[in-house]
Amino acid sequence: MLTIILNAAGGLALFMLAMAMMTDGLKAAAGGGLRDLLRDWTSSALRGVAAGALITGVLQSSSAVLVAVIGFVNAGVLNLRRALGVVYGANVGTTMTGWLVAAVGVGLPVDRLALPILAAGVLLRFTASGKRLQGLGDALTGFGLFFLGLTILKAAFAGLVDAYGAEAFAAAAGGGAGALALALIAGFGITLLTQSSSASIAIVLTAAIEGVIGVPAAAAAVIGASLGTTSTAVLATLTATANARRVAAGHVAFNLLAAAVALALFPLLLQAVAAAGHVMGADGNPAAVLAIFHTTFKLLGVAVALPLTGLLTARLERLFRSAEDDIARPRHLDRTLRATPALALPAIRAELARLQDEAAALAALALSPKPGARGALARRAVACRQLGREISDFATKVRMQGMPRDEAEAFPVMLRVGRYFEEAARLAPAAMEARAAIAALGGDGAREAALETLKASRRAITVSAGPEGPEHPGMREAALAEFETAYQAAKAAVLRAAAQGEAGVEAADAALDALSHVRRLTEQMVKGDRLLDAATPARAEALAENG
Fold first, then answer.
1. pTM for the full model?
2. For residue 100, what are the domain limits?
3. Count of alpha carbons within 13 Å of 149, Cβ hemisphere only?
4. Most buried one in 138, 327, 404, 482, CB count within 10 A?
5. By the 8 A CB rule, do 205 and 149 touch?
6. Contacts of 285 (CB under 8 A, 6+ apart)
7. What are 294-326's pLDDT values in tens digits?
């Protein structure tokens, strides 16, 4: 018995190592291609399902796809609704593991194929010069180890049956309520322990091939393994961002819904799957029948979840609220305004003014950082950029037919204003490094001049985002000129300190780079305010009156 347990544990360990190598190798081989596919193929929830299923089927890792989705949602590239489609598809893509295990059950000579594949993968890994080819070598190595692990696992279960006799497993092979409940719990528990639904599916299907467990109980264990994946998502996002928690909650909701549908239709599903297996000639291969079952119940989950995506998105967006979410969510834009440009334009102006205020506050935090503010600043920068994209998306969808010329010409200007403030938000984290770079400078004069530049930048940004009025443009330009004078003086002082040996060359370069970021940040904020002046009637009139 000890030998059987050790063999099973070794086979499982080899299988999990193989999965990790396949995933990492394929990600390296694909470069940014799979991420681009995930970003570009998700214009709708349905296309997101297809992209999620395809990428997960290739990578053999729903976790890798979910991590990418969370990153895109945090960056504002994907909205939550489209991200949920990818989550649904990722769950469908996990069924590929079952089909690979089924290949063992139909008697394919995988043990003969595994070693040549393994040899080819190792050879490519150590002889290829490029990272992509090396990644492909890792993937091939993992593929060979995958089948070796399954072969060892299969032999361990066969040894279990030989040691104790098929009669000892008759109860597990049946379909009684107790056996089904136990199998459901076992599938959940194995996934919880291994933190891998693929490992659970491999164990269940391999056990079914050797007759340790029957198809009904194995099907229940497959549902349990699917439920067990929710624990991985929950544990991974306990201290994560609000968006990460929403994506994880969507993953949990999908799996609960799919499992509920599968359990409610369990007898009918088993009959339908058995019939499909008979048509496909898989009567003698329980693993193939279970792969069909796994795929069918995931697709049923997608069919039920897709129509509910809008409702689920609305519910999830009300959960895990944060200050950054409030920044990123437009307050003045409404879909109904798109058909009425005369109303849409003031709403866009109001939202841009709000974006300007948020970007100015972000810049102030970057130029005078508080201890521990780095994380908050990065999150607020992402939120500001997301708000800018929301404004741009809204502006491009406003109906332009019959619009007066002056209003039509204002829309491109609004888009440029948004881009300026977005760019300012992007520069804020880099500008935050200025104070540390200045502190590392040698020479009191250089440090004082550089610090004065930061003060002048903050004054220029505060003035540009200040209250409107006839004097506003003049004050803004005077503040910008004052900043430029301070910047040039600081630049000269830093170079002089480096030339005189008061400051190291590397420290001087770092300070000049940081000051350059501050300059760009200041200019973007001022340029955005100028354009907002020109595109806002009241401001434009004041500009004209003041020359």
1. 0.60
2. 2-317
3. 24
4. 138
5. no
6. 102, 105, 106, 209, 277
7. 999 999 999 999 999 989 988 888 877 767 777
